[in-house]
Amino acid sequence: MEEITFGGIMRRLEEIASALEKQDLELEEGLKLFEEGVKLVREARRRLTEAGARVEKLIGSLEEELTTEEFRMREEEESGND
Amino acid sequence: MGEVNRLADGLLQEVVVWVEGEVSNLKPYPQYLFFSLTEEEAVLPCVMFGDAAKEASSILREGMRALARGRLGIYVRRGQYRMNVYQLQEAGEGRLRREFFRLMRKLSAEGLFDERLKRPLPPYPESIGLITSLEGAAVRDVVTNITRRYPCCRLFVRGVRVQGEDAVGDIVSAIELFNRACPVDVLILARGGGSLEDLQPFNSEEVVRAIRGSSIPVVTGVGHEPDLTLADLAADHRASTPTGAAEAAVPSTAEVLSLLKQKGTSLESALRRMLHRRERELAVMGSRRPFRDRELVLGEAGQRLAEGEALILNGMRGALRRMGAEVDAHARTLVRFPRDYRDLPRRIHHAYERLRTSFDSWWRWREREQMAGTEELHMRMSSFLAARNSRLELAASRLDALSPLAVLSRGYAIATRRGEVKPLRDSREVAEGEELDVRLHRGRLFCEVRGREEEAEVER
Fold it and tell me: What is the ipTM score, two decimals?
């Protein structure tokens, strides 16, 4: 489930929804699709609600070394809050 | 007087200056050009000669800002102080605006602003690159809005200078940097508001080409609402402010969550529709009643089959209704407590298995009954008849066995007193001389008792 992107999840959900509307769908096949859809909805919710914001600052250049460090806003540094 | 003025003129000629001011009192002549440059309260009279004057007269307009280079001096005949201008160009906003339109026409002719080149932004970006100054409100606006709206994405910030000579190079290499070393899903190029001059780097040809050359789609959020830059025209999506760019780059988590809720509900209803389709199919199967005619022929047995079938069909319909209700209940639960419904698919699957099992056994039962029905009835009828026959025979033989007449046929007789029906059992019941009736197997005798013996004597 980790390797699929969020956009991929949403696209797959579209596919499942339209597949479930097909008239000749076998019941068992339909239940499988439904189950997959429910899992995807849950995974998407988890990603949306569990992830915290990650903001990084890109330092360096292509020629030299390129690294990242945690981004902090100037004002926060000055006021000392957060 | 001429001497003095020439002296002053000689002294002033040492002074060569660049000045910028507003053009007024413009008086063009074939060979020369008079005008004044004014700035607040001060006025500087100017004169131009020859080709420079001809060239300048095509640019100069009353009220425009001009940048002039020239030598100070005095018009000796009138003792008038003035600047002898030999280089002049449009200054400030006007020049920038002219340059802006020139470049816009050029790049537009090349097709760099073509709508067909614009790529759609990914609806759910995993990562975002932000190119902006680390100082000022723009970086704060974008970072705050993105982390608030859509905290599940990664945001990389690349600090650049956004005005001054080095800004263009910084911006171009930042776009390159992301494309080559940090492949984010979307780039935001942002800057707070400023004068046309401040925004100049975003109107540069280099930045426009870098945006169009980026393989990552670019969103611009430069300046305030009315500011439009060439970078905006080249970008895949133009927002009017940094905040607007952040909102364009990421969806709002709340909206995506409600979309997911919708998707969950539509999965439920699609499943429900699928189950109902199956229910209708079963109903159609059930309404084809192959027993209908046989009921007439077989009477009670056929009736019994039909009733069994109806019971099973009703049972199945009930099971389907319960499944439907269960799905409905879960759909409602899903809306309120999405976590509670992880069991639902399994439970529906079980319900379906139960239904299928009962349907299969019903079908087998039906086939078996259909074949066995006639035979069974036949067997039942013949065994009933056979049983009744043998019962009759048995009853008849019992009846025979119990009849006293049967005893007489074996040689016994029944004796009664004359006129009575009670058979005599004991010799002491009668006296000598009494008259008796004796009944034989065939016929009767009328007798008189001559003598008698008691039991003991008989036994002996």
Answer: 0.83
Q: Over 70: is that where the pLDDT of B365 sits?
A: no
Identity at B251, one-letter amino acid code:
P
User: Residue B305: its pLDDT value, please?
Assistant: 58
**A23 occurs within a structural domain:** yes
Structure confidence at residue B121 (pLDDT): 95
Please indicate whether, in this complex, the C-beta atoms of A38 and B135 are within 8 angstroms of each other: no
**Adjacency order of strands within the sheet including B444-448:** B414-417, B435-439, B444-448
Query: Domain spanning B122-251: which superfamily?
Result: Response regulator (3.40.50.2300)
Torsion of CA B319, B322, B327, B329, to 10 degrees: -170
The CATH code belonging to domain B2-90 is 2.40.50.140
Give this prediction's pTM.
0.58
Task: Please choose, from the candidates B23, B18, B7, the residue with its C-alpha nearest in 3D space to the C-alpha of residue B73.
Answer: B7
pLDDT of B379 > 90? The answer is no
Tens of pLDDT, residues B48-57: 998 888 888 8
A44: nearest CA partner in chain B:
B260
Question: Per the structure, how many domains does chain A have?
Answer: 1
Give the tokens for residue B102.
Answer: 């020139």
A62 touches chain B (CB under 8 A): yes
A6-20 vs A27-50: helix axis angle to the nearest 10? 150
A75 inside domain:
no
Task: Specify the DSSP element, H or E, that contains B39.
Answer: strand B32-39
Phi, psi of B162 (to 5 degrees): -110, 0
Question: What is the per-residue pLDDT across B40-74, written as a single tens digit (0 to 9) for each?
Answer: 889 999 999 988 888 888 888 888 888 899 999 99
| Mean pLDDT calculated for residue range B379-398 | 58
Residues in B closer than 8 angstroms to A6, CB to CB, are 124, 126, 152
Scanning B177-206 for CB atoms below 8 A from A yields: 177, 180-182
Confirm or reject contact between A4 and chain B (CB < 8 A).
Answer: no
